[in-house]
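To whoever picks this up:

The parser on our side crashed when reading a file containing two proteins. I've narrowed it down to the boundary between the first structure block and the second sequence. Both blocks are reproduced below exactly, byte for byte. First block:
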Amino acid sequence: MSSTVLGNPSGINFQMNENQQMIADMIRKFGKDHIYPKMMEWDESQEFPIEVFKKLGELGLMGVLVPTEYGGSGFGYTEYVTAITELGSICGSIALSMAAHNSLCTGHILQFGNEEQKKKYLPKLATAEWIGAWGLTEANTGSDAMRMKCVAVQDGDYWVINGTKNWITHGISGNVAVLLARTGELLDSNGITAFVIERGTPGFSGGKKENKLGMRASETAELIFDNCRVHKSQVLGNVGDGFKQAMKVLDGGRISIAALSLGIAKGALNASLKYAKERQQFGQPIANFQGIAFKLADMATEFEAAELLTMQAADMKNKGMKITKESAIAKYYASEVCVRVSTEAVQIFGGYGYTKDFPVEKYYRDSKLCTIGEGTSEIQKLVIARELLK
């Protein structure tokens, strides 16, 4: 990586530190031993390989940002970006689930839970003894979250929750979920509350599992609440603060998706470089042809630009700086780059790129979610514009 970037407000040195290098090396070995052999089987069957996440938990990768006092690794966002990027360069599905577990469910409890909640849940999540889910989106409220219909009504010391959440990572397999439910009037930003709810709570169940284009080994399903009674001790932070909490959680989540985008793009670029040097046409490697060489140059340039934007947002997050604009820029640009790079990778591979015998078709399928999940590209542009115009 470059050591400086023009206009960078954080003043970060982008050289990989010792912890990042250790994490990258560890994940490459882990991928070779535990992911590569079966990832296409998981993709075909849409199996969510929980045993892989248990192993990632043993390595400290399911609690990267969690302080050591709660059983986590105690690293910062730069190490976290490295971990997701390296996993994403192997398998987008595994990286997506790891990112959602870390930044959404675990991250929400870490940021807004009280001491009792942190001690109860973070050690289990950081070690992957428990898998986490995070419920914001509903069937008719994607970007328009304040119109959510999942409602919690207070009944003495309990809240009674009714409604359904859609597109939830680990909606069936998650052991604990952070849920955003409406506790006030429709469209009131102070009328949404966050709850932490354990699997097994009466009235709480998983629903339909989505049949997806890509990221097929990362489980996406409904969360269903049918007169689910939750004690007031399960409220995260203050009643009515849920929407504001969610927006702060998503600032960090956008770094996660930017890092995931980097990983998929990196995998597609590396596969393309290798193939272009090996594939012979007209008596020479196709890398010798300007049409291919220029594609590779564009892919590499856009990847490095996306990497700088993502690491800048990560460093600013580490320093406690406001990152709403920077995380949105990183997520927007990196996700669009991811789609472009994986598309060009398929083109470089030609007919072979369209088959499951070669890796780039999976990068291509996995890439598209990055422009949709945790805020579409259009929403990122809206966020960026609002920040610029303040």
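<<boundary where parser fails>>
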Amino acid sequence: MHVSDAIIKRRSVRAYQNKQVPNELIKKIFLQAQDSPSNCNTQPWHVVVVSGDVRDKIEKAMVSEIMSGKAPTPFFQPGDQGLKDQYRKRQIDCAISLYDSVDIKYEEKEKRQQLMLKNWQFFGAPHAAFFSMPKTMKEINAVDMGIYLQTLMLLMTENGIACCPQGALAMYPNAVQEVANIPEDNAIMFGLSFGYAQEDAAINHFEVGREDLSTNVEFLG
């Protein structure tokens, strides 16, 4: 598979088969991702991959905190805060397309909340990864984290594995840290649910589209 093919094929998958990815393949992909570039080769990422009973224990802990009414406590500012103008519009349009794919109207708040809860159930994926970096690091280091995440997602796509990057998995860090081995001086930035896609699920096929190239890129000279 060419890189350009993997970029086009990759999607944020929100429904998975009850089928484990072989451990050897998971380790191979994460080993290959170690070649991701980073500023001055700092490699700021620390990742905890969870499966089986550990994955289930973390899901239960996060859902318990949510159902108890506990407010989220992310260390890094979530990506959906402070959005304005066209950025806010794109966010809303994406959400509406997601709801439409499962026949939920925007005004059906309870159904939207039930769909949102699936974030912390990993959308049924058998595996999840939590990505953290030192709390002392700043925006430029977050760029390295994003490069690493994209590298992983493209490698997963190449190997027939579906995934979904999720800022939501950083919202309840205490529930994760009690089970996962997150370094004490690190904070979770985002998570990634992954496994084999449930191909016939409508939620895996909604379209959001992209802006015209001229909207985002200028060529001078």
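After patching the parser it read the second block fine. DSSP finds eight helices and four strands in the chain. Residues 139-158 form the longest helix (20 residues).
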